[in-house]
């Protein structure tokens, strides 16, 4: 028993009363688009494995081969002796695909956002304060990075570039380097930012554009390399992950050589973290070979999402601004989301309830994430189960 256990229990009791307590439930993969949980096989519509690469033979084979050749661990941080030749090879391949001068690997998307933003907002670097303009619905890791840097966020309404433009104009006379920090695809609403318009706005106001591509990488943009390519080289930094559509683990930052060299010298999340191990790098390398060849899978994924949105709209379900492989079903109240999730699980469907603080109060939902591993029959099973469960509310 710890000294704070009574306080921990009080907090957990409050979460129970609000229907916002979370718990860990182990699962086991059961083949394409399926998992086993609680003794049952369920159709999995909650995974970020958008291209079905997590179990792809090439990723598994190369992960095993690189572990056999190079060992289980990298043994140190990147600046000590943890930078293997493999890190440099994967970073060079990624930069070529992203069309940037350089790329830098990180251990996770959370780590990248939480560590890179404070390095960018450093007063010694900028010679003063940063003025940071952020989308209200940015991922928690982006908010955390801003908080860690001690900067005040100037928040614009979600995907409202007119509001952003107005805020930039209002603060035009204030000293400080301007930053726009946003996502290209938002993980809870499944909508996307207008990246070309964002880039033009950043250029007009002299702002550094930081673009989180975690849920776009692999799925959207030329060769599946994200929406930053639509900015015509005007996105100053693109962050993305290997842990979603690319089927493995880890994250990256892509941008100029000077940017990456600076982060090597100033970004604590890279300087003090043990480097990614060979098996993870092998899966990364294989995914980078595969993803540019998967245009047909990407097209099918978007077509399935269109069908799912149409089915939900026919049932009167609000899907927010979804235009991607992520399709939310907004319930509003936390208990309604939990109840709908339970009814779907009884029908063999895994649809996880998302509640505050992950989403704003009053917008609890089931977040359905489609995968190229899903079949047409799987999609029909989902729409049928949702129709039954929704009508039984």
UniProtKB/TrEMBL annotation:
Keyword DNA-binding listed: no
A Pfam cross-reference name: Aminotran_1_2
Role, per record: Catalyzes the decarboxylative condensation of pimeloyl-[acyl-carrier protein] and L-alanine to produce 8-amino-7-oxononanoate (AON), [acyl-carrier protein], and carbon dioxide.
Cofactor names: pyridoxal 5'-phosphate
Assigned protein family: Belongs to the class-II pyridoxal-phosphate-dependent aminotransferase family. BioF subfamily.
CDD domains: KBL_like
Coiled coil: none
UniProt KW keywords: Acyltransferase, Biotin biosynthesis, Pyridoxal phosphate, Transferase
InterPro entries: Aminotrans_II_pyridoxalP_BS, Aminotransferase_I/II_large, AON_synthase_class-II, AONS_Archaea/Proteobacteria, PyrdxlP-dep_Trfase, PyrdxlP-dep_Trfase_major, PyrdxlP-dep_Trfase_small
EC id: 2.3.1.47
Pathway assignment: Cofactor biosynthesis; biotin biosynthesis
Lineage: superkingdom: Bacteria
Reactions catalysed, as given in the entry: 6-carboxyhexanoyl-[ACP] + L-alanine + H(+) = (8S)-8-amino-7-oxononanoate + holo-[ACP] + CO2
Segments forming domain Aminotransferase class I/classII large: 41-384
Subunit and partners: Homodimer.
Gene: bioF
GO molecular function: 8-amino-7-oxononanoate synthase activity
Name recorded for this polypeptide: 8-amino-7-ketopelargonate synthase
């Amino acid at each position: 028993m710890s000294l704070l256990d009574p306080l921990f229990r009080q907090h957990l009791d409050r979460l129970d009363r609000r229907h916002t307590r979370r718990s860990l439930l182990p699962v086991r993969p059961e083949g394409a688009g399926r998992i086993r949980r609680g003794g049952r096989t369920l159709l999995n519509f909650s995974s970020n494995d958008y291209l079905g690469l997590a179990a792809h033979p090439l990723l598994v084979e190369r992960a095993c081969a690189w572990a056999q050749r190079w060992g289980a661990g990298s043994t140190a941080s990147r600046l000590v002796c943890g930078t293997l030749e493999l890190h440099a090879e994967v970073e060079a391949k990624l930069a070529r695909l992203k069309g940037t001068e350089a790329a830098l690997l990180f251990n996770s998307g959370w780590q990248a956002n939480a560590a890179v933003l404070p390095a960018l907002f450093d007063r010694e670097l900028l010679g003063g304060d940063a003025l940071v303009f952020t989308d209200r619905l940015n991922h928690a890791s982006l908010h955390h990075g801003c908080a860690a840097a001690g900067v005040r966020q100037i928040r614009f309404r979600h995907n409202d570039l007119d509001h952003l433009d107005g805020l930039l104009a209002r603060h035009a006379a204030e000293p400080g380097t301007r930053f726009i920090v946003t996502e290209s695809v938002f993980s809870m609403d499944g909508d996307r930012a207008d990246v070309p318009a964002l880039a033009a706005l950043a250029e007009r106001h002299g702002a550094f554009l930081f673009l989180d591509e975690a849920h776009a990488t692999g799925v959207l943009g030329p060769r599946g390399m994200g929406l930053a390519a639509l900015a015509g080289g005007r996105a100053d930094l693109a962050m993305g992950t290997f842990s979603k559509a690319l089927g493995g683990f880890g994250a990256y930052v892509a941008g100029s050589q000077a940017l990456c060299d600076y982060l090597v010298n100033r970004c604590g999340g890279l300087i003090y973290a043990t480097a990614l191990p060979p098996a993870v790098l092998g899966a990364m390398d294989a995914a980078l070979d595969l993803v540019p060849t998967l245009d047909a899978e990407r097209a099918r994924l978007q077509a399935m999402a269109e069908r799912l949105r149409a089915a939900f709209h026919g049932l009167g379900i609000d899907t927010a601004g979804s235009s991607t492989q992520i399709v939310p079903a907004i319930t509003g109240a936390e208990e309604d989301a939990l109840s709908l999730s339970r009814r779907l699980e009884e029908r063999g469907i895994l649809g996880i309830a998302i509640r505050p603080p992950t989403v704003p109060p009053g917008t609890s939902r089931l977040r359905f994430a489609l995968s190229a591993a899903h079949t047409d029959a799987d999609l029909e099973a989902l729409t049928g189960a949702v129709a039954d469960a929704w009508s039984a509310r």
